């Protein structure tokens, strides 16, 4: 699990950057998805919304929550567990001892656990771990145990908001009998966060210089943020809170937290759940898994969309053609991003592989739209393709809120943990030479993607790694042959997961010997948030330590809407199917499609913008969330998906059902009213368009996915 940022394009980029840059995890932190009252409205679409009165941001990484300030906590300090402490024997009750209500949310109990910064010198400097406990909600006085959860990245803070996704969506039934313990790792969130201002600001032009400066700023502490340290910290927290055995949940780069803990503290582990675990030990330093998976993921997304498949009967071949064409003929121009900002952008194979596909993989917008967008570009319409590029424009920078994500921690942890193609302790010339030799041995292509496009310097490629600019200690999480026996483990993967493809998630089963792997169909990164199946599997496993019936994983987690094409006019659009009413002309059926697609495209792109956004070819969209009615509303004003049709009106969602009435002005300035309803984004479902044909109602349908 990972954190979030100021805008969807920057947040997606920063999060995924951590996965491969310093340590190949994902951030793509959709793991940071936040759950709450609005879960029923949006879980089919983008995960879980915040339970606060603030409107959810619809970022794949979760809602933007008000940040907690270090001075705003009401917390007691638990004695450091590297020294004798009677608190270790305290009985478990509604809240373990040594905790007081958190200042921002009294439903959680807060504490600080000091641990040795350098475990080789336990009497030296300390680091203060911030811990939040969600006490079990059932009537029993004593909890059955506790589930420990951290955030991925590396660098994401679990207590900055992602905790709500677990207490409210993934683990609410488990929380009736077990405490949920959320720990900010050393150097993250409120655990003496690492603040390297220049690196945190995320300027693309100074990526390597800012990384070197951060290393120098850390000085003799730079090598003290390894996953082995994190695992031992978690055991100190366990002892401080008085739990004999604990259950572990780790998603993305938090997966290695829990795997390493299980290797080092096996007897303290009751069960482990890993979701899209970003396995590091024994993996490819160039992370070829991701580009090799791109063709299949793009093809599956298009292939499951009736509209896209009809226009692209061979989607795998179509994606190969996209990569080839952008390699040979990049597309440049002014793109308008989903928030309405203009960007002078060039869409080439490098941007395709490292941003549109990889960073946008968590939202499915990149993999879903790239084939039809490229088709439009080949026919002279660059607008959809340039929008994809503008949404991930490197010129935006990659800055992130320090409370939510520490770039310095990501650097320090990733560099000591990481498998890199050079000797971390060698001199600068030797490191550069070793990298160059390793790079030369790499194949020319990783699937459809060329080596220069994927393994590229800086934020768009991370090759060489930012670790190359400084000396680091090599501190593997565990030995390459490590095996954990006797610990029941559930490993979840997502069929559409690009940051941590299923091939990587499955590597965890080699370490966790007594494990069951379950791949969730049509799920992306952090599959536990993709649908109700994730929480069902996770909670049953923690309760029984057995996977049980996993058939829900075979049902598509979400039917992401993929357009078949990006028509510039009604004449170019496919005709909607007519269900009943007076027979309509081909033109009227095409207009019904354009009206529905205008609403669907505009709303879907707004999911990843914290606030208002703009339609593809002009107009406005205003977003509002009503926490009392538990409803989301999108108001479109003269929205254009094609150049010749304007759509205005309000689209509302309560639960999985969407409903809206719109004024649609088509060619010839003729205006009519259309009602668009249905379970938008639901697999195998349809959106219904009702309009007036010659004074009589007529009903049409288009796929909702």
Keywords for this structure?
705 residues, alpha/beta, 10-stranded mixed sheet, disordered N terminus
Task: Please describe what this structure looks like.
This protein is α/β, with parallel strands linked by helices. The strands form 4 sheets. Strands 1, 2, 3, 4, 5, 6, 7, 8, 13 and 14 form a 10-stranded mixed β-sheet that branches.
Spatial separation of the terminal alpha carbons: 26 Å
Radius of gyration in whole Å, from Cα? 25 Å
By DSSP (H or I, 4+ residues per run), the number of helices equals: 20
Biggest sheet architecture:
10 strands, mixed
The rough form would be described as globular
Short description:
With 705 residues, the protein is an alpha/beta fold. Helix 8 crosses helix 10 (315-328), helix 10 (315-328) packs across helix 11 and helix 12 runs antiparallel to helix 13 (383-391).
Write the SSE topology.
Blueprint: H1 8-20, H2 39-42, E1 76-77, E2 100-101, E3 109-116, E4 126-134, E5 145-149, H3 163-170, E6 178-183, H4 197-201, H5 207-218, H6 227-241, E7 246-251, H7 254-264, E8 269-275, H8 289-303, H9 306-311, H10 315-328, E9 331-336, E10 342-347, H11 349-357, H12 365-378, H13 383-391, H14 407-417, H15 428-441, E11 445-446, E12 449-450, H16 451-454, E13 489-494, H17 502-505, H18 508-511, E14 515-520, H19 533-544, E15 577-581, H20 586-606, E16 620-626, E17 631-639, E18 646-654, E19 657-665, E20 671-678, E21 686-693, E22 696-703
């Amino acid at each position: 699990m990972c954190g979030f940022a100021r805008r969807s394009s920057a947040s997606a980029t920063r999060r995924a950057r951590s996965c491969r840059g310093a340590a190949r995890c994902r951030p793509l932190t959709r793991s940071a998805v936040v759950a709450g009252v609005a879960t029923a409205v949006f879980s089919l679409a983008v995960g879980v919304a915040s339970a606060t009165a603030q409107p959810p941001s619809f970022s794949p990484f979760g809602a933007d929550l008000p940040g907690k300030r270090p001075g705003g906590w009401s917390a007691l300090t638990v004695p450091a567990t590297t020294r004798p402490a009677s608190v270790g024997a305290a009985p478990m009750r509604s809240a373990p001892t040594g905790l007081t209500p958190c200042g921002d949310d009294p439903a959680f109990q807060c504490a600080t656990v000091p641990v040795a910064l350098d475990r080789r010198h336990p009497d030296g400097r300390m680091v203060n771990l911030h811990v939040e406990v969600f006490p079990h909600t059932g009537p029993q006085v004593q909890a059955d145990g506790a589930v420990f959860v951290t955030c991925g990245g590396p660098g994401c803070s679990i207590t900055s908001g992602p905790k709500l996704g677990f207490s409210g969506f993934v683990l609410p039934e488990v929380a009736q009998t077990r405490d949920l313990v959320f720990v900010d790792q050393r150097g993250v969130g409120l655990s003496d966060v690492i603040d390297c201002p220049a690196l945190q600001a995320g300027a693309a032009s100074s990526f390597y210089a800012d990384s070197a400066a951060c290393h120098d700023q850390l000085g003799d502490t730079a090598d003290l943020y390894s996953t082995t340290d994190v695992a031992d910290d978690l055991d100190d927290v366990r002892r401080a809170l008085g739990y004999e055995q604990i259950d572990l949940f780790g998603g993305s780069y938090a997966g290695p937290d829990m795997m390493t803990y299980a290797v080092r503290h096996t007897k303290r582990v009751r069960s482990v759940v890993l979701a899209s675990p970003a396995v590091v030990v024994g993996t490819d330093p160039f992370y070829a898994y991701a580009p090799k998976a791109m063709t299949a993921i793009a093809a599956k997304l298009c292939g499951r969309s009736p509209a896209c498949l009809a226009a692209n009967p061979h989607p795998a071949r179509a994606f190969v053609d996209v990569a080839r064409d952008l390699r040979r003929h990049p597309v440049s121009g002014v793109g308008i991003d989903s928030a309405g900002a203009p960007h002078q952008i060039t869409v080439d194979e490098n941007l395709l592989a490292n941003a549109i596909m990889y960073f946008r993989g968590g939202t499915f917008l990149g993999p879903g739209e790239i084939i039809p967008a490229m088709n439009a570009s080949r026919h002279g319409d660059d607008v959809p393709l340039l929008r994809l590029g503008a949404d991930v424009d490197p010129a935006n920078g990659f800055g992130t809120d320090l409370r939510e994500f520490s770039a310095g921690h990501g650097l320090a942890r990733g560099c000591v943990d990481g498998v890199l193609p050079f000797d971390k302790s060698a001199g600068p010339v030797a490191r550069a030479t070793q990298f160059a030799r390793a790079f030369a041995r790499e194949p020319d292509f990783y699937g459809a993607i060329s080596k220069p496009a994927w393994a590229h310097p800086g934020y768009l490629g991370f090759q060489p790694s930012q670790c190359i600019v400084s000396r680091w200690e090599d501190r593997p999480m565990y030995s390459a042959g490590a095996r954990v026996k006797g610990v029941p483990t559930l490993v979840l993967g997502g069929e559409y997961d690009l940051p941590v493809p299923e091939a990587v998630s499955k590597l965890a089963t080699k370490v966790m010997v007594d494990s069951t792997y379950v791949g969730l169909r049509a799920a992306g990164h952090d599959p536990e948030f993709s649908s109700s199946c994730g929480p069902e599997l996770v909670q049953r496993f923690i309760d029984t330590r057995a996977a049980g019936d996993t058939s829900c994983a075979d049902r598509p987690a979400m039917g992401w809407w993929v357009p078949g094409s990006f028509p510039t006019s009604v004449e170019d659009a496919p005709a909607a199917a007519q269900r009943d009413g007076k027979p309509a002309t081909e033109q009227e059926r095409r207009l019904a499609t354009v009206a529905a697609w205008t609403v669907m495209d505009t709303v879907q792109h707004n999911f990843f913008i914290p606030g208002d956004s703009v339609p593809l070819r002009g107009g406005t969209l205003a977003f509002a969330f009503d926490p009392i009615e538990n409803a989301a509303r999108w108001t479109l004003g003269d929205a254009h998906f094609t150049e010749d049709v304007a759509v205005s009106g309000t689209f509302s969602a309560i639960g999985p059902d969407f409903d809206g009435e719109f004024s649609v002005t088509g060619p010839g300035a003729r205006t009519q009213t259309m009602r668009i309803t249905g379970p938008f984004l639901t697999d195998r479902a349809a959106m219904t368009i009702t309009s007036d044909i010659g004074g009589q109602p007529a009903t049409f349908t288009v796929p909702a996915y």
